[in-house]
Amino acid sequence: MSVLARALQALPIGICLFTPAFAQSSGPGPAPNSIDLVQFADWTKVCGKDKDASANVCYTTADFGPSKDKPPTIAVAVYRIEGRRGLVLRLLLPVGLMQDAGFSMSLDNSARTPGKFKICFPNGCFAESALDEGRGDELLRAARMSVAVHNQNDVEVTFRLSLGNFRAAFEGPGIAPEVLAQRDKQQAKEKAEQTAATVKPPAAIKPLAKRVALIIANSQYQAQAPLKNPINDARLLESSLRAAGFQTVTVKSDLTREQLIVAIRDFATTADGADWAVIYYSGHGMAYDGINYLIPVDAQLKVDRDIDLEAIDAGKLLSAIDGARQLRLVVLDMCRANPFVSRMRRTVASRSVGRGLAPIEPNPGEMTVFAAKDGQEALDGDGANSPFAESLAKYIGTPNIEIRRLFDLVRDDVLVKTHNAQQPFTYGSLPGRDDFYFTRN
Fold first, then answer.
1. In this structure, are residues 360 and 330 in contact, taking their beta carbons and an 8 Å threshold?
2. Rounded Cα gap, residues 130 and 95, in angstroms
3. What is the pLDDT of residues 387-435, one digit of tens each?
4. Per-residue confidence (pLDDT) for residue 290, from 0 to 100
5. End-to-end Cα, the chain, rounded Å
6. Same domain, yes or no, for 24 and 121?
7. Could you tell me where the beta strands, DSSP code E, fall in 371-438?
8. Could you tell me if 97 and 152 are in contact, meaning their C-beta atoms sit under 8 angstroms apart?
9. Contact, 105 vs 145, CB < 8 A?
10. Is residue 201 assigned to a domain?
11. Which terminal residue of the chain has fewer beta carbons within 10 Å of its beta carbon, N or C?
12. Which residue, among 266, 257, 255, has the nearest Cα to 214 in the 3D structure?
């Protein structure tokens, strides 16, 4: 069924705007300069009420191409509008043509009728020409139509197509747009059934690895100014991990200490028996006496001795994913400038509260990534996402990058974006005999 016929159902007839439904043609080349096209199906006449023109409109349409096993090159529609003299010829042509040159149409060996391009989309351009009554009569008697255009080299190329059964369709009864829609739907169903019948199922389907992730974003701190990017970074990473095929991606935001403990405990159950388990934390954190802590949104931390009571040891994240079989990954994007540290009263001089995070030593088979290496602070950047999260999401979506190289590329990107002010750092030892990819072709 003609794409122009299908387009009539969705758009007003009077304005000549259709959504191209066929595949993009590469456009004609400089030689040969005349191309004979094959008609894909019989001419179809469609009649309906044009709301814009307040008139009944009928058009007769067909698709043409170099062969039936290739996408159509041209769609032709001839309109008769109630109450108006003459006809309107409308064409859907390939992209890559010289629009200023317009097109011309001739019938058999008659003189040319000029036409203009109206609008182009990425996969097709619409052109139109008005035909007076005399030219319309010629069209009904003609055996062949020729459409001349200029290609991107400004060389004229002519498409020749048959008008064999055009008159019978044009003068015959038309079908309503809703009838056409139903017929198209039935034909599509029959084609899908035929295709399904010829497709053989694979002998065996390898099950996908079970990959799960927990994303925590703490922004709305009760005792400090909110952080602008953690929730944006969480959404970005969620989208990237889902696109990479993670079956479960749990996102939690603005967690109190109690809620944070529950989220970690619940995810431990999800991670048990998974192949991959990933936790990404974005928010405030600190190092105290050599231990890294996640800071919940309800933390006050007025005194250093309260850190153990109000914050959560980041080591609990690694404990939560210990049941994953292949890859256990924790990403800590929590090295931001920490306002808690400057306001906190110190009571134990022998215990240090460090700038940034403290280095760690994960167990074999575990990997921990800091958005900024120990002693540094991570930057939020000027955009909606932090430089680290932006680069991480980009490389998660890039196929065939092994995970160790992936975090090397993230580090290099962040160093460039921050002018060497922030260097992500990776700790851990994954088994050398195995490769790990977020995305594979």
1. no
2. 22
3. 999 999 999 999 999 999 999 999 999 999 988 888 999 988 888 888 9
4. 81
5. 36
6. yes
7. 425-428
8. yes
9. yes
10. no
11. C
12. 266
Q: Are residues 114 and 236 in the same domain?
A: no
**Per the domain annotation, does 263 fall within a domain?**
yes
* Pair 150, 253 in one domain: no
Asked if residue 25 lies in contact with residue 6, where contact means CB atoms within 8 angstroms, the answer is no
pLDDT digits (tens, 9 = 90+) for 122-155: 778 899 999 999 999 999 999 999 999 998 788 8
Give the span between the Cα atoms of 348 and 55, in whole angstroms. Answer: 88
Letter for the amino acid at 179? V
Give phi and psi for 438, each to the nearest 5: -70, -40
| 3-state SS assignment for residue 360 | coil
Is there a single domain that holds both residue 385 and residue 259? yes
- Examine the domain organization and report whether 262 and 378 are in the same domain: yes
Please enumerate in sequence order all residues whose Cβ is within 8 A of that of 26, keeping only pairs 6 or more positions apart, or say none: 94, 96
Coil, helix or strand at residue 346:
coil
For residues 58 and 181, the answer to whether their CB atoms sit within 8 Å is no
Q: Angle 387-396/403-417 helices, nearest 10 degrees?
A: 140
Task: Give the count of domains, the chain.
Answer: 2
Choice between 190 and 397, residue whose per-residue pLDDT is larger? 397
Are 216 and 252 contacting, i.e. CB atoms less than 8 angstroms apart?
Answer: yes
Structure tokens that stand for 106 in this block: 């001739």
- CB within 8 Å of 345: residues ≥ 6 apart: 302, 303, 304
Please tell me the number of Cα atoms within 13 Å of 379 on its side-chain side. Answer: 15
- Give the 3-state secondary structure of residue 275: coil
Residue with tokens 């000549």: 16
Give, as one character, the DSSP assignment of residue 47: E
CATH code for position 117: 2.60.40.1880
Q: Collapsing DSSP states into helix, strand and coil, what is residue 418?
A: coil
For residue 227 the two structure tokens come to: 């952080």
Domain that holds residue 321: 211-428
Average pLDDT over residues 32-41: 85
Considering only 196-200, 280-284, 408-412, which range has the smallest mean pLDDT? 196-200
Tokens standing for 297?
């949104």
Q: 237 and 153 in one domain?
A: no
**What is the average pLDDT across 356-382?**
78
Q: In the structure encoding, which two tokens stand for residue 226, read together?
A: 């909110």
Helix axes 230-243, 387-396, angle to 10 degrees: 10
Phi and psi torsions of 394, nearest 5°: -60, -45
In a domain, 196, yes or no: no
Largest CA distance in the chain: 102
